[in-house]
Design a protein that fits this description.
CATH architecture of the largest domain: 3-Layer(aba) Sandwich
Order of helices and strands: HHHEHHEHHEEH
Strand order of the largest sheet: 2-1-3-4
Distance between the termini: 75 Å
CATH topology of the largest domain: Glutaredoxin
Strand content: 5-15%
Number of domains: 2
Number of strands: 4
Shape: elongated
CATH superfamily of the largest domain: Glutaredoxin
Largest sheet: 4 strands, mixed
Number of helices: 8
Structural class: alpha+beta
Helix content: 40-55%
Low-confidence stretches: none
């Protein structure tokens, strides 16, 4: 039956599925792009290390417990620092070993954000000759021996360095459950 005048005025209903199809394709493309962005910009994993503030209390704890100090010199603007935090310090196995083996101290440089650092941060940076971020320093409880790692070279390299530095600074293999076993196979 041919279309009547009334039907022609109302318009064709065939355009509606094309519009819906175009909207569905547009939404699909938007979701794919958002998925790519989420993968690139995923939120950082929580840091699982029990960091202490820099100062005399952490040093006293290290001497009392016979553990070396692990200083993590970092800055908020430092991308490699954030990567190390996400890959090393957010790993539950590595964080448990660090918490058992060291008195961990996070030393955050605030010079770029605030124009200066606290006296404690400046003193530690001078003492350990920190030139770049991140820098890890393992220091014997009495301060007589230390090992330094500048830059971030990946999770495996960093965890191996932590194990070797612990043995070098303490002069012996640590107690069971402490750091060595360079964590390759977990």
């Amino acid at each position: 039956m041919p279309p009547t005048e009334d039907h022609a005025v109302a318009g064709s209903t065939r355009a509606t599925p094309r519009v819906l199809l175009a909207v569905a394709v547009l939404l699909l493309v938007a979701r794919v792009l958002l998925g790519i962005f989420e993968r690139v910009e995923r939120p950082p994993r929580p840091d699982l290390v029990s960091w202490r503030e820099p100062g005399a209390a952490a040093e006293a704890e290290a001497r009392r417990d016979g553990k070396p100090l692990l200083y993590d010199f970092s800055a908020d603007w430092c991308a490699p620092c954030r990567t190390m935090q996400d890959e090393v310090f957010a790993d539950s196995h590595v964080a448990a070993k660090i918490n058992a083996s060291y008195v961990p101290v996070r030393v955050v440089d605030r010079r770029r954000e605030e124009g200066r650092n606290s006296a404690a941060v400046d003193a530690l940076q001078q003492m350990y000759r920190v030139q770049s971020f991140p820098t890890l320093v393992v220091s014997a409880p009495d301060g007589t021996r230390q090992e330094t790692l500048q830059g971030y070279r990946g999770e495996m390299s960093t965890t191996q360095w932590l194990s070797v530095a612990l043995v070098k600074v303490m002069g012996a293999v640590p107690r069971p459950g402490a750091m060595p076993d360079p964590i390759p196979g977990r």
